[in-house]
Structure prediction request, 704 residues.
Amino acid sequence: MTLSLVQRSNPVLALYVALAIGAAGGLPFLRVAPNRLLSGEPVYLWDVLQQLGNQQINALMLALVVLLCIAVWQPVQRITQALLILAMAASLAGVWLLASDFARTAIQAENPFRRTTLGAGFWTLAALAWLIALDAIARVQLPTLPRLFLQIAFFLPLLLSLNEGQHLSIAQEYANQSDVFGPAILRHLQIVFLAVVPALVIGLLLAWRMTRTRNLRQALFPILNVIQTIPSIALFGLLMAPLAWLAIQLPVLGRAGISGVGIAPAVIALFMYALLPIVRSALAGLEQVPTEAVNAARAMGMTARQLLWQVELPLALPVLLIGLRAAVVQTTGLAAVSALVGAGGLGQIMFDGLFSAANELVILGVIPIVLLAMLADTFFKVLSSLIKTRP
Amino acid sequence: MTIKFQNICKFYDGAAAITDLNLDVQQGELVVLLGPSGSGKSTVLKMVNRMVSHDGGHIFFNGKDINSFNVQDLRRRMGYAMQSVGLFPHRTVGHNIATVPKLLGWDAQRVQSRVNELLYLLAMDPKQYANRYPHQLSGGQQQRVGVARALAADPDVLLMDEPFGALDPVTRAALQLSLKKIHRATGKTILFVTHDIDEALLLATRIVLLNHGRIVQMGRPLELLQQPTNDFVADFLGRADLGLKLLSLRPIAPHIKAMDGAEPIHTISHTATFKEAISHMATLHVSSLCVVSADGTVLGQVHATDLLETSYV
Prediction:
């Protein structure tokens, strides 16, 4: 077995390291402004390190560079990758702590209205630390469950040091708005749940009918495909007029909270988007159920319902879960846009930030959405791997 | 537990697949539906549990028209095994076998003991196999589980659609013997479809030979071999090696003679057929064999001349 130098080295990591060096040197790590409204002066990582003047941090940075060099040239060593994952988790928490420390000293030194904003350099370095860790986790080649656990555990050091950043502007924004986050997350989950659960039930029924009647498939898939191509904002808008009209015609609906704006158009539109991945995967899942098993089940006297619950659905489940995962992740993301028709949720925070030019508020709205989507993704991956171990 | 076909017809796209079929299956019979592919033998079998509907005539199950049953109830009273087995890949062997008993609402303990009983019957240790998944079994083991599943709820009738067709000769022979034993032990009425003449001769108490959706001849295996009604029957049963087939139907047991003079060196089991004995003699270049029982006791001897000169009537 001969491995060339190219195969032995890790060009992906080399690229990440190059980008990290570029970001550390060329992008402002932080911005410091006298108050919330001004955009502020750039502060580079080098300035931060110099100002803090901590020899231990400098030594740690040097150790990190050495480790990265080893990892670029010796990616096959599992111990190297393990160290790399640890180092990246520490680095992610590290850039946060560096920014926090700088903000604290800056506040103490000067006026209390001074804002220390996280800059492009910080975000790039944080993102690169995450990407390097993901690459390293993939290279360790663990079974699914430990791998997913590691991907979540990676954020642990950052989460533990989150409180340190209270002098950063992003934490101050959070403190100002902290009471809206809890309800916003709940509302977001509510929208996703109300859209995906009916989509799952109806999607399954449709797919099941499609395995029996070919015409339904020919009629339905073009419609679902067209819905998928309508931009989400347009679909929300298109639903507003008919819903408002319905609410006027049927006051019962209005009293139940259904109207042209709010959660109703959002849930209906997201339901329609979620239908395609669910129907498609459910159909693919049902179609790969072995014909012999279905025939045997019928010949043994199973009713259509018993056949579905005892044979078809369990055998279709692994494929169905792939589509359901896609639907949940997609709906979590799209639900952000539904804030535009007054549905609320985390998108509301995001748009508030956007319209008041408060970038950090935008980020505070986006991060929970990304985390929710990631958690949903991980949840379904765990579920899939649990099902696969039980063939 | 009888099945009666009365003037059965079946059409596919206007073309007749089964024409005016009449057949009485009595309690305890093992009727083999034999015929070339396309002869309609499988269709006839599937009509019994209404997996295929018949277009004309009546099928009676214990004297009652099968269309008067609830279709699920009817199927649960008939065990069904087929060539592709169709085990449920997501269920263990034990769970697969338990399918119909569970549909019938048996309590867990009764199901459990029935599963164990059947696994023993088909020579599979429950401790070793009950919790395995189908993909962890060989083809022969899968078919054993398929047969066990068909027998699970102690059905009145067993319908078997070329169940051993996809197995290697050794495994097939073993399963054929298992089935024969089960039939003898339980006295179940069995309807068995095959295109394998030797299988039919070995298993059947009665053979129904079909061609183009009609019964060409039916009767005991020996009758078909000795009195074929037409050329098709003679050709299908193998005109050239008819003699060998006849030999395969006769056990040597009644023709064992006492030892006289030198004892033959080579031995044969007392359960062997004429065909096995003659084949043995041909390969060993001898004209007599020493017959022994399962525990090795010498019972006597058989001579080639005796075997070949026996009349078959």
Chain A touches chain B through 20 residues (CB under 8 Å).
